[in-house]
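Reading a protein record of the kind used here takes only a little practice. The integers have meaning only within a learned vocabulary of local backbone shapes. With that in mind, consider the following protein and its fold in token form:
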Amino acid sequence: MCVTVYQLSLPDRVPEAVCHLWNCLDEQMVRMQFHGIAFRIQEERIGSRVVFLCHDGGGDDAESREVRHGIGLTVAEYIRSYHEPNLVRDAVRKAFPFQPSRSDAAEKAVLSWIGKKRRRKPSLGLDWKIAGQVSGFLKESRRLAVDGFIRFRLKGYHRVFSRLLDQAVREYRLEQEYQEFIELLRYFVSTQKTQIPVIHVLHFGKSRFHLMKEDGTPLRLKDVEGAAQEIMEQTFSREDMIVSALLSAAPEFVVLHTRQREETIIRTVRKIFEGRIVLCEGCPLCRSEKVGRETLD
């Protein structure tokens, strides 16, 4: 029985990285041993590097492939859980250099967005691609400098992750701008004198709305033109016009009749008029498609 020893190394100047890789290897060892693979690891220091000796147990070719693949998944996990957060931290600090208080929240939000993107788009397969590259490398060479491998051998991974990271930072910035705008509108609502006691908003999906006053008559722009234009200087869509109309009308209550409560425009209205929203649980108006014709003009 011939035991193969694979060597994974990192420079000793970053103890956190070394400790993290050890933890990843230790978890992989437990998984392999659970499946009957005699995988074990040792730690040595050679010069300025910490070397992890990974013994494969001397099994057949199939078991050797499993060990190499397991080591590959370990490196992928190390990259995802240690290397990527550092990349995110650098990107966030670069994107928001004058907002250090936001850094932690921004980093968590960006990492969360990237994680969701990975789950929704399995074709990215970053972990499996990294594992495959590591496994292929170990088939030809028993020594892998993890830091050098990440820097020089994973250029394809870096291209994909860099695009994901840029997109995640943009999405976070847009979300922050959206939240700040919502807060501005909420403040505006709180300072407005009520003009109309109740407005019914009937929503039939996408941009189909019908706004009605309490007496059942349609709400028209000529009824609500006013101060909201100072905040919303121009409307870019039907949704913007609905929000602008509600802001100008400054109703005491907004009754929402909708079957799509999670649509963006509905969530926006609920946030702006928080505390004034009444969600209709079903009424003749909700069930009547006859009122679906847009009458805000």
User: Anything to note?
Assistant: Strands lie at 5-11, 40-46, 49-55, 143-145, 198-203, 209-213, 253-257, 277-279. The mean pLDDT is 87. The chain has two domains: 5-185, 192-292. Residues 192-292 form one domain.
